[in-house]
Backbone:
């Protein structure tokens, strides 16, 4: 099967219609590929008890079903994004689809602990290759600000919906067909996405490996990121002292990487890239925002199950209003709202709603109900995320030049993984410690558990408020530090949507 795009012919209006159709088809394929990796990060959580019973995992060993995916996924995003700039983003995307699909099949047929953990690690590699370059491909496909804002809104809606739908689908597939099918379902989807990508996405010529193949720097930053994710996801199982000692390793590697970039002839990260206020500010804001949202998704599910008494499938169903509202708002209003009010104002409004939603959750009662105590906060958080995520994504990508779009995309996805993992580790540890302390003092289980969750949501409120306070000066409209020659901060923000 040939992947070459036939030459265009016909009238100018016909060629314009053909280009529009091709771009939309490409957007669908990119969203489908990204959706698989997003779903897989969440779909496995509900199936964990079934996997444990079937394969005989111990409690600590079971965590590696998740960690084996997260560590290579989070560690390789930056490198995969840069390699996409060098070898071609479509090539990186389609190669990632192949790796992810094969790994999913291996997960689905795994009959032992080691086989499943190894296949999950391979899934993480494929997921990083696929996810790292998607935003960079969107920037190339949709060069006009209004079109790019719409494309980012669609992609963000798919990502947000995928995260929430993972919990529901995990429960439904595990209950109906068995845990193997949460992985096997990816095989036909991945195959169709791969074939479609070769047919509808035009090939792009990368800069070539010689333009930026800093192999020592790549090894340093990849090792640093993997150790960072490993340190974070395992923090709850270690003492604070052990975690601090382990954290020294990635800090050392990051320092060595920074030194390497100042001396390398072809650095992995062009030094001027991180001088962009939009790029660095948007990534910092996103890290805090995602930390709060991941805390809600995980701890909220625990509250619904352990305090309200919902089962697995009913818990997944309880989260369905979130992706529905996010999808409706992102697809129907996000791009137009950003075009009218500007990305910065929309981001601040979204972060305000997220902070308010987390504040409501910090008052959860031990005898609460879903409709009164959970659903209103969930709707506030969903509306806030629907506003904030496309805005912060557009701001981050507008802070990079086209030749760095893959690297900027990988960096944005990396901060998302690190922020989510860090927020989850901190908030769950705080909740568990508070609950254990109250149980030791003689408090009954449900009130003690609820108080632990309230503490976590109180801290989550502070994290969301910190994101809001940071976004006010860091991403305000106006001239920003240039990302490199020919890149102007103000025009970059215009491209993010302030003049769309």
Residues:
């Amino acid at each position: 099967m040939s992947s070459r795009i036939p030459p265009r012919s016909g009238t100018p209006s016909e060629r314009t219609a053909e280009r529009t159709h091709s771009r939309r088809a490409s957007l669908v394929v990119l969203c489908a590929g990204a959706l698989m990796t997003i779903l897989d990060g969440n779909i496995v959580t509900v199936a964990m008890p079934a996997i444990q019973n079937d394969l005989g995992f111990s409690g600590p060993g079971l965590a590696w079903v998740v960690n084996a995916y997260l560590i290579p996924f989070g560690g390789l995003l930056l490198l995969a994004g840069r390699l996409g700039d060098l070898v071609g983003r479509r090539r990186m995307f389609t190669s990632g689809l192949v790796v992810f699909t094969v790994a999913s099949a291996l997960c689905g047929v795994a009959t032992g602990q080691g086989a499943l953990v190894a296949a999950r690690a391979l899934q993480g590699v494929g997921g990083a290759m696929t996810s790292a370059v998607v935003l960079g491909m969107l920037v190339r496909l949709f060069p006009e600000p209004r079109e790019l804002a719409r494309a980012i809104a669609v992609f963000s809606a798919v990502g947000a919906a995928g995260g929430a739908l993972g919990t529901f689908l995990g429960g439904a597939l595990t209950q109906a067909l068995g845990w193997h099918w949460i992985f096997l379902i990816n095989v036909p989807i991945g195959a169709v996405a791969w074939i479609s990508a070769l047919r509808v996405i035009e090939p792009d010529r990368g800069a070539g490996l010689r333009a930026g193949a800093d192999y020592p720097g790549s090894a340093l930053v990849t090792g640093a990121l993997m150790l960072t994710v490993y340190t974070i996801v395992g923090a709850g199982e270690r003492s604070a002292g052990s975690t601090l000692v382990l954290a020294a390793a990635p800090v050392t590697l990051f320092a060595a990487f920074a030194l390497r970039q100042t001396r390398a002839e072809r650095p992995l990260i062009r030094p001027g890239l991180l001088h962009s206020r939009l790029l660095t500010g948007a990534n910092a804001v996103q890290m805090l925002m995602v930390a709060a949202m991941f805390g809600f998704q995980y701890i909220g599910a625990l509250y619904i199950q352990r305090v309200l008494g919902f089962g697995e499938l009913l818990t997944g169903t309880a989260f369905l209003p979130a992706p529905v509202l996010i999808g409706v708002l992102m697809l129907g209003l996000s791009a137009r709202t950003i075009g009218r009010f500007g990305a910065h104002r929309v981001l601040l409004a979204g972060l305000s709603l997220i902070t308010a939603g987390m504040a409501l959750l910090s008052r959860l009662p031990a005898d609460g109900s879903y409709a009164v105590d959970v659903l209103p906060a969930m709707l506030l958080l969903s509306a806030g995320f629907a506003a904030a995520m496309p805005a912060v994504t557009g701001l981050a990508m507008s802070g990079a030049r086209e030749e760095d779009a893959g690297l900027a995309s990988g960096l944005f996805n990396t901060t998302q993984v690190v922020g989510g993992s860090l927020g989850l580790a901190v908030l769950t540890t705080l909740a568990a410690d508070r609950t254990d302390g109250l149980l030791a003092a003689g408090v009954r289980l449900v009130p003690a558990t609820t108080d632990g969750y309230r503490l976590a949501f109180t801290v989550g409120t502070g994290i969301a408020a910190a994101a809001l306070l940071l976004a006010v000066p860091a991403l305000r409209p106006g001239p920003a530090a240039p990302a490199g020659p020919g890149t102007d901060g103000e025009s970059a923000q215009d491209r993010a949507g302030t003049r769309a």
Notes: Residues 1-5, 480-500 have pLDDT under 50 and may be disordered. Residues 214-265 form one domain.
